[in-house]
Amino acid sequence: MASSRLLSHLNGHPRLKLAIQLSISALVPAAPILYWSRNAKRDREERFREVTTKMRIPSVQTIDELMVEKCQPGDVVLFDRRCDCCASGPAAALGCLLGKAFLCEEEDGTRSVERGSYEHCGIVVPGQSTAKGAEHDPANLCLLEATSGSGVTCRPLLTRLEMSRSRSVILLPLSCPGERRFEVDHGDEGGLSEQTKLVRSITHSELAKFRDKWLAESISQDYKSHHSYLSIMGACLYRTGLYPTFPIPISPSAWLVVQALQECGAAMKLNEKQSQQTRVEDFTRDGRFFERDTVRLRPGWKFLNPLVMRENSVS
User: Fold this and answer.
1) Around Cβ 41, how many Cβ atoms within 10 Å?
2) Kindly report the CA angle at 190 between 131 and 202, in degrees rounded to 5?
3) Cα(282)–Cα(82) distance, rounded to whole angstroms?
4) Which carries the bigger pLDDT value, residue 239 or residue 14?
5) Distance, CA of 123 to CA of 203 (rounded, Å)
6) What is the spatial distance between Cα 184 and Cα 61, in angstroms, rounded to a whole number?
7) CA distances from 223 to 86, 120, 215, 276 (A)
């Protein structure tokens, strides 16, 4: 009887019936999304606890620690992320999926990496430690990147690598004019000219200023609330070919890295939209040989051969 009265009541109120139907229609597809988002956040928290409580054995280095020792400020790190592991919410995962679908191209022989769909990147910057000798300590290196969960963030490079669930992480070492990087022992500056040492010192200083400026801007502008939507809009505008019309970065993470390279004097400033129209995969093409879809560096600056920092299953 109660069910009959309920049905008759709904039939007598078509608007209420329509509202219930719309609510159910929205909840059905939302349920698996909410379940996935909850699991992704839980996995991220477990990963964070695992990394922060990891036992460090003195005089025994992990692969990640050895790779961090090869880095220096100005290097660019590319990520082939797993979109299903995005713990910043459905919008962040959608931005990741659209970035891979619209901004990443099939291997055409022009890239310096063999495989991977790189749609996120960051730049290595000096850490905020002011201790004596910290500028030469690999443990003080940080990765500056634009993210959905924390906005523009600067995290220790080693922690960032250990936290990563990406399929592949690639390092693009940046070499300044006159620098013979990897040709001498790491950390040995005896083979560097005074001019090269000065250029490297200026680069470190400018990157530190850029880091502080954008960390403050991210907080004041609440960038973390906009990153996912900028990523979605940028990918869609690139796909439709309308990106030259709108002052929106195609890839927010690539936009930040190009601006950092321009600030430290490594990248050329061809026009105002150069950084906005840069994709992450443009870093994989040598600007000395390609006019389009590349990051143009100033004379004497170059990216060395990419180094694989982490390679997981491609499935």
Assistant:
1) 15
2) 55
3) 20
4) 239
5) 13
6) 21
7) 18, 16, 10, 16
Question: Is 189's pLDDT higher than 60?
Answer: no
pTM for the model stands at: 0.83
pLDDT in tens, 106-137: 666 566 666 778 889 999 999 887 777 667 67
Residues composing the chain? 315
Structure-token pair, residue 205: 């200083």
Q: Closest by alpha carbon to 306, among 280, 287, 283?
A: 283
Distance from C-alpha of 274 to C-alpha of 113, rounded to nearest angstrom:
23
- Closest among 311, 306, 309, 310 to 182, alpha carbons compared: 306
Residue type for position 256: L
Contact criterion met (CB below 8 Å) for 96 and 117: no
Q: Is 124 exposed, middle or buried (0-12, 13-18, 19+ CB in 10 A)?
A: buried
End-to-end C-alpha distance for the chain, whole angstroms: 55
